[in-house]
Structure formats: structure tokens, C-alpha cells
Amino acid sequence: MLLAVLAFFLTAAVLVAWAIVHLLVAGDFPQPEGNNIFPSPLENLAATLVMLGVLTPAVLLVARIVQRRPAWSVASVVNRLRLRWLLLCCVPALGYLALSYGLGIAVDAIFPNADSSPQDSGSWVGFASFIGPALLILLLVPFQSAAEEFVFRGWLVQAIGAYGPQNADNVFKRILRSPWPALVISSALFVSAHGYTGWAMADIFLFAMTVGWLSIRTGGLESGIALHAMNNIVAFLLPAATGQLDGWADQGAGPWTLFVTDIPCLAFYAFAVLWLAKRKQIARVS
Prior knowledge:
Elements: H1 2-26, H2 41-53, H3 55-65, H4 83-110, H5 127-161, H6 171-176, H7 179-192, H8 199-218, H9 222-241, H10 256-279
Helix pairs in contact: 1-2, 1-3, 2-5, 3-5, 4-9, 4-10, 5-7, 5-8, 5-9, 7-8, 8-9, 8-10
């Protein structure tokens, strides 16, 4: 309950402060419509990323005050975010993106009519128009991605698992000692927090289950943050580069090929992260 209250007031505070600064710097803006609060798509994206990013301190505060444990125990079993390990996980994350791109081209060539929705690829906006949005995306997306990992793969998984202690004395608690109920519940809530439908829902559920499982197997959120951030950076940079940033909030259905293509890509990432974790002797338990 405290986390929900903090999340509401922190995001509201960011929005109000942002609106005040906008009024002082740029003057009035039109009546908000849908997800568009400000007239610029880039400004709407930046405000949303900041509002999501402030969820991290909310999670840390709740862990410390309510659960009476070290705040950063949400991040990993060593009570901190292991930055070197996080950066190392970015290497297989790049491999995931490259493999996803290559398989996407191959599958589209084999099944050209799988995606029935027409897509406008746009055109290069030029370096001068791209550099500003690119820097903003590179700066803010990691914090947004980390915040979502702290909420769904960190705090939520741990909160559910806390009901299955070692001295479990009934069937319900014995079930919750396994990580799978927490992973399924947190992944389903992660999907519900987005606007995807159809095969895209299945794909994001698979993503959530994979990074959640890796978080448990590696004793921390670093591998999930790395893949989440790298994926989102590319997802925002591409429309920024092609003049389609006004559709950054669009989430809908996807073809079945999206889900099928992502299976080997996520499998590659999981295998690579576990191999690296074993070689680097990454701590799995406290």
C-alpha cells in the first residue's frame, strides 16, 4: 500500500514540476489528449521516462521502512547493484539485439505476409535532428528500465516469495517456496502494465519470465536491467532516427513471427548470461 501511495505522489510530483517548468520556459500548452500531455512527442517521452524512473527510490524506501531490511537488498544478494556485472551483461544483450535483427529479416523473408498491419519505415531525419533525442533517450531509458526491474523482478518477486519461508508448515507456503509462482504472477502483472495484445502479449510475458528467472539464477537484477535497457534504447532510437517519435507510446498486437523469433534470442541471452555468471563466480545467494 505504501509503495502504491509513494508511486502515485512521486509521479504526480514529477508531472506537476515538469508542467511548471514548461510554463515558465515555453509558455502555455494545449489541453492534454490521451497519452500526450505536452505538445512535443520528445517531451512527452522524457516526462514519462522520468515518472517511471522515480519508482526505484520508492521501492528502496518501502523495503527499508516497511520490510525493515537493507534497501539495496532488492537489487542483489550482496545488497548493492553490481555495476561491473551489469555492464558485462550488456555484451550478450547486444548479441540478443543482433540475433533478433538477423532472425527478423530471415523470418520476414520466409513469411512476408505474417504481419498484416502496414508499416511506414520513415526516413532518416538527419544528424542535427537526431542527436538531441538520442542523448535524451540514452540518458533516461536506463533509469526507466531499472525502475521496472526493481518493481517487477525485484520487490514483487521477493514480496511474493516471502510468504514461503524455510519453515513452511502448509501446502500454500511450500508452493511459494518455489520461485515459479512469483515469476508467473509478476510477469502477468508486467504484461498488464503495458498495452500489448495478441502475440505481443505472449512475447512480453516470455521476456518477463526469462529475465525474472535470470534474476534468481544470478542473484540480482543486473541481467534483467541490461537486456531491458538495451532493448528499450533501440526501440526508442529507431523511431527517433526516422521521424516517427510521435508513435512512441503505441502498443498493440504483433505477428506470431515476433513471438517465435524471440524464443531463440532469449534462449541465447539466458545461456550467455549463465555462462558468464559461472565464469565470473557471480554470487547467487546472500
